[in-house]
Specification:
The structure holds three protein chains of three kinds. By secondary structure, chain A is an all-alpha fold. Chain A has nine helices and no strands. Chain A has two domains: 3-180, no CATH class; 183-234, no CATH class. In chain A, helix 1 (10-26) packs antiparallel against helix 4. The two termini of chain A are 29 Å apart. Chain C has a single domain (2-157), classed as 3-Layer(aba) Sandwich (Fructose Permease), CATH 3.40.35. Helix content of chain C is 36%, strand content 25%. Chain C has helices spanning 15-25, 35-38, 41-47, 62-67, 69-73, 86-94, 125-136, 154-157, and strands at residues 2-9, 29-33, 57-60, 78-83, 103-107, 115-118, 121-123, 141-143, 152-153. In chain C, helix 6 runs parallel beside helix 7. Chain C is globular, with a radius of gyration of 15 Å. The chains are: A mainly alpha, B mainly alpha, C alpha/beta.
């Protein structure tokens, strides 16, 4: 597959940017219905480029990684809405078949998620300015409402900008990997992703556990998964 | 004046935007004030001075799980209506921050969201169409999400100062304690099936038994040391395409 | 067993304490020393609402804490003692019960008159004096928000050399 075969027209780009706005604002600001989770955002990205299945595969891998970052207290976590969309769309645009492209798409999704986190923090500082001084806002509730809504729209803008800026470069980067032929090193590449999923699952399992006592359960779960695989159910 | 049903509906629906202006100085405080406004406007109708004072109180720093902030919005509104003195309101706010955060984090972020995500991924791995997987996830998750918001708001308004009694040992906590084993089981299962999918889609020869053994050991180590395990996972994730592309160049 | 954590934190029982410290140290019970809370049932209900059912919290006044210290310190399991500010912890230190215990400074947030020492520690001159006194009458005061965070000795934050 060559670059010329990828079609990402201006119409699709605009829809993706609008979707990026909706996915960006969902995670924290409004309404938190979790369309910003990778399993949804990456699937939407894939669907926009005509291959939701490819998007969802990227989303599934990103989920295993995202699950180990619950937003407890002041913990930092990846901003997976726009990032998932970009990663899912890029992989779908590349044809959604090549394993090399999947590896690149997932890393782009993960990296962009953390770039998104930086933009979330910047926005929180901007909000500090927007929502002050408190005295003026208390004396004028309409102003308070206006500023609060402005802050939410800024988050929409943030998500849109992330997708607008990264969709095309990311699609090009992922498609670069499509043509690469498997090699000896390719075995280690796949093994690296598989072991990465394993390590991430361990850390993610702990995030849901009440203490360390649940460790045998994760192995039991994996054994059940193995039965599904051997049984040909998946 | 007592808030009308429409005021409650307005305040409740505004709780969806409670983190809209989250900032480092008041955290979710400005969002709480934004959501409380429909109630405060009714309670202090025709009294701009008291309205101003109440908004000023509501704007102060607050934190809590966003879904359970609906409880804070309603309970604080109730205290305003009952003309509870400002000092008690401030103490109430200070007390409520802790449990609304820890209960919500544990139950919603710690259990409900991951279990819905994992079920959706499992459906996908079992061959369901993407539309179904996303649909099931969004409907299932949000039945819980919106249910929590309704329960939190109604409880907050009914209980006022006494919310602590209703929050302690609430269904949210007992559900969380019941769900965690299922969450860990699903995490293990989903990871294995997903890894198998990656391996079977790859065009290179791999040794599944060795991968399985190493994967199991790594999973257990990461479970015991999640911070370090997470870092190892991130390194392996980045290493994968680097090795692939390097192989392509060399080969 | 014994009280294994002595912490000054405005927020008392909240996520950082219950999940962050509680899970790491395996805390089985909490002792909250606060005169107002000791007599306010509705506040006790709210503060303890975030705890698991099998983890009790005892709310005692400063006087009671000193009087009952041996009992509170020798309950079954591992305990954590929390105060809202430096003054109450200083009363415990003055009473001599903290001699061989390290005191953790967890969260004192920005208000008028306090200067910023760390992102989560802001102190006014009176609180700095309290900490010096606690430092002298205990095994030391260190600041650390979460177990995974860096432990900073109070000497590095506040000038304790007279």
């Amino acid at each position: 597959m060559s670059w010329s075969e990828i079609y990402l027209g201006p119409g699709t780009w605009i829809i993706a940017v609008l979707a990026g706005g909706a996915l960006g604002v969902d995670s924290v600001s409004w309404p938190q219905v979790m369309i910003s989770r990778p399993i949804v955002s990456a699937t939407i990205g894939g669907w926009l480029l005509g291959n939701p299945m490819a998007g969802m595969l990227v989303g599934a891998v990103l989920e295993v990684y995202a699950l180990r970052h619950p937003p407890f207290g002041a913990a930092k976590y990846p901003d997976t809405g726009p990032a998932g969309l970009v990663a899912g769309a890029s992989y779908a645009a590349s044809g959604g078949m090549a394993i090399g492209a999947l590896l690149v798409a997932v890393v782009i999704g993960w990296g962009l998620g953390w770039i998104g986190t930086v933009t979330v923090q910047v926005r929180r500082r901007v909000n500090e300015r927007i929502m002050s001084p408190a005295g003026a806002l208390a004396g004028n509730p309409e102003l308070l409402e206006e500023r609060h809504r402005m802050a939410i729209w800024l988050d929409v803008l943030r998500g849109g900008i992330l997708v607008g800026a990264f969709l095309v470069p990311s699609t090009l980067a992922v498609s670069l990997a499509v043509g690469t032929a498997p090699s000896e090193l390719g075995r280690y590449a796949i093994a690296s992703l598989v072991l990465g999923i394993a390590a991430s699952a361990g850390a993610a399992g702990r995030a849901s556990a009440f203490g360390v006592r649940g460790w045998p359960l994760i192995l039991v779960g994996a054994a059940l998964g193995l039965l599904l695989v051997w049984g040909g159910l998946v | 004046m007592r808030p009308l049903r429409s005021d409650h509906l307005a305040a409740w629906s505004r709780t969806f935007a409670v983190q809209g202006s989250w900032n480092y100085s008041t955290l979710v405080g400005t969002g709480i004030a934004y959501a409380m406004l429909p109630l405060l406007r009714r309670i202090y109708a025709g009294d701009p001075v008291r309205l101003r004072d109440s908004v000023e109180r509501s704007l102060r720093p607050f934190n809590g799980h966003p879904y359970l902030c609906a409880m804070a919005v309603a309970a604080l509104g109730r205290l305003e209506q009952d003309e509870v003195d400002p000092e008690t309101i401030e103490r109430f706010r200070a007390a409520l921050r802790g449990p609304l955060g820890s209960v919500g984090d544990r139950a919603v972020w710690g259990q409900w969201r991951p279990i819905c995500v994992l079920l959706s991924v499992l459906l996908f791995l079992l061959g369901a169409s993407p539309g179904w997987c996303v649909g099931v996830f969004l409907v299932l998750y949000n039945v819980g999400h919106i249910g929590v918001r309704i329960w939190a708001y109604v409880t907050g308004w009914q209980a006022g100062l006494e919310v602590g009694r209703l929050l302690k040992g609430a269904w949210l906590e007992s559900w969380a304690e019941r769900l965690w084993p299922a969450n860990i089981l699903l995490t293990g299962g989903v990871a294995l099936v997903l890894a198998d999918l990656v391996v079977s889609n790859s065009t290179v020869a791999l040794e599944p038994a060795a991968l399985l053994g190493m994967g199991a050991v790594l999973t257990l180590i990461a479970f015991r040391f999640p911070r370090q395990g997470g870092r190892v996972a991130a390194v392996l994730l980045v290493l994968a395409p680097v090795l692939w592309l390097l192989g392509g160049l060399v080969g | 067993m014994t009280l294994v954590l002595f912490r000054i934190d405005e927020r008392l029982l909240h996520g950082q304490v219950i999940v962050g410290w509680g899970m790491r140290l395996g805390i089985d019970y909490y002792v909250v020393v606060d005169d107002e809370l000791a007599t306010s049932e509705w506040e006790q209900d709210i503060y303890s609402a975030g705890l698991a059912e099998k983890t009790p919290a005892f709310f005692v006044s400063a006087v009671e804490a000193v009087e009952r210290f041996r009992e509170l310190d020798s309950r079954k399991g591992r305990g954590a003692l929390l105060t809202r500010g430096t003054a109450v912890m200083k009363r415990l230190a003055d009473a001599g019960v903290l001699v061989d215990r390290r005191v953790n400074l967890g969260g004192l947030h920005a208000t008028e008159g306090r200067r910023r020492v760390l992102t989560y520690v802001h102190l006014n001159p009176g609180e700095e004096e309290d900490l010096k006194a606690i430092h002298g009458a205990s095994a030391g005061v260190t600041a650390r928000d979460l177990p995974a965070g860096r432990e900073l000795f109070i000497e590095d934050l506040v000038d304790v050399v007279e």
